[in-house]
Amino acid sequence: MRIIKNLDELFLKVFMSNPCPMAISELSDGTYIEVNDALLDTLSYCKEEVIGKTPLELGIFLDSIDHKKMLQLLNAHGYFKSFETLVSCKNGNILNAVFNGEFITIEGRPYLLTVMNNITAKRHYEQEFIRLENLNLIGQMSAGISHEIRNPITTVRGFLQFFMRKSAYAHHQDYFELMISELDKANSIITNFLYITESDPLHSQYIVQDLKKLLERIQPLLATNALEKHNRLLYYISDTPVILINETEIRQMVFNLVQNGFDAMPMGGTLILKTFRQDRHVVLVVQDHGTGIDEMILDKLGTPFLTTKDNGTGLGLAVCYGIAHRHNAKINVTTSSHGTSFEVHFPIYQTDS
Fold first, then answer.
1. Neighbours of 312 (CB within 10 A)
2. What fold does the segment set 205-353 form as a domain?
3. Residue ranges of the chain with pLDDT lower than 50?
4. Architecture of domain 9-118
């Protein structure tokens, strides 16, 4: 496939030096005849791998139908604008991209000029904003109704305990225990609501602490949980700088992430808990060897009441994201058919000196 060499000199300079990924391709099948460095850098290809190939051959469009839709818009209107789709890079990264395209004529022949904008970061920030808005909404709801709900629950629970001690109701003991258990579950859900809130409803204290020491203290409890699930728990805890944390909340976060990891694996699976330093952060990793998280819900993780468990409330991960937010930490999730890894990045505590 020949490369167009007689492009207008000014156009060629603008095309090649443009920071936006750009390409010139055949109208018939989309074969690339020229691309700029920005496109190669964004998609992690070298020029020889792209020129003479079509987007379908390279698998650039995650949904090949989107490429056909762009060509249909081009044929109908002579251009397309702000066409959003997902593109796949050579290194396996998936990007949110917006395409603009129109006809251009070179040496008397029509070609397609496309310009791509990588909006992955924008979409990520939008999702984070929505997540925080949801957390704030849940926080307002929980602060407003928890007191009103807990009071009658406490009253009912007290009367049930009173009556279950009466000999006249001895034969209904199982029923009383069941009702009290259900009230305790409701109270637990309210507590989880309070953990999600942006403020600190539990009035807990934040202290400078070594994450390694905290994890070593709860290791026996996590090991017991692993035995109950017939799974293995591997600890790879490194010495890391101190961070500012609330121990109660971090314990809750670790228990939730570990429990989710065990639930995601079959019996005999191995879960890894590790820590390390990365730049200015201490990273806590909980890695399971399950079947991974469905791509359809990956971007919605942390949304209250989102669950794939038959008996789940959908509050566990929401609690984790709420705790991370209060600690100025960030949760990154990577998943595949071989397992899922949750990484919590805590900022290292900086002294004034």
1. 14
2. Heat Shock Protein 90 (3.30.565)
3. 1-3, 198, 201-202
4. 2-Layer Sandwich (3.30)
